[in-house]
Amino acid sequence: MAGRNEETLDHLSLLGNQNTKYKFEYDPEILEPIDNLHSRDYFVKFNCPEFTSLCPQTGQPDFATIYLSFIPDKKLVESKSLKLYLFSFRNHGDFHEDVVNIIMNDLIKLMDPRYIEVWGKFTPRGGLSIDPYTNHGKPGTKYEEMASYRMMNHDLNPETITNR
Fold first, then answer.
1. Mean pLDDT confidence for 22-28
2. Is 79 assigned to a binding site?
3. 67-113 residue pLDDT tens
4. Annotated catalytic residue within 27, 55, 94, 131
5. Which family does it belong to (predicted)?
6. pLDDT score at 12
7. CA atoms in the 13 A half-sphere facing the CB of 127
């Protein structure tokens, strides 16, 4: 494998674009896939420590770190498109639990990964933090079993100030 070239990246509209437009309303169409050139299992992890969305009732901002991990199959998500997609939640009103599930569902639709998990660690508001976690493994594969195991064991360590 010699790497990627312009021909394999010509379908990407955001990467390298100096006139990037930031959308302030939720838009899954921003996401762009790229081919996964590797057949082995490996994790890809994205951390977004400056995620914001809005409370659907009050309109107040909610801040979070979104942890996204996946084992790709044939497709990956291009990172600039992911950044712009996550930014598009800025004025989107939804509950924390809905946000992580929306993100996961959009990425499953885009990439059809072998395994994926999304964990939102939202900063406390009113003295309460909400940290929803969701995952998915391809049905009928070892990744489905992996998803079940990780769901049962994902949060065994109590919260401390150093792991938030």
1. 85
2. yes
3. 999 999 999 999 999 999 999 999 999 999 999 999 999 999 999 99
4. 55
5. Belongs to the GTP cyclohydrolase I family. QueF type 1 subfamily.
6. 65
7. 0
Residue 19 half-sphere exposure, CB side, CA atoms within 13 Å? 1
Total length of the chain: 164
Q: Is 78 annotated as a binding residue?
A: yes
* CB atoms near residue 120 (< 10 Å): 24
Tell me whether residue 96 is annotated as binding: yes
**What is the 8-class DSSP label of residue 29?**
G
Q: Residue 13, annotated ligand binder?
A: no
Pair of tokens at residue 125: 């508001």
48 is catalytic: no
Q: pTM for the complete prediction?
A: 0.85
Told to judge if 155 belongs to the known catalytic residues of this protein, a careful annotator would answer no
Are 28 and 87 spatial neighbours (Cβ–Cβ below 8 Å)?
A: no
How far apart CA 151 and CA 115 sit, in angstroms, is 12
CA angle (95 as vertex; 31, 54 as ends), nearest 5: 75
Whether residue 129 is annotated as binding a ligand: the answer is no
User: Active site residue: 10, 27, 62, 73, which one?
Assistant: 62
| Residues 6 or more apart whose Cβ sits within 8 Å of residue 141 | 114
Please check whether residue 107 is in contact with residue 75, taking contact to mean a CB–CB distance below 8 angstroms: no
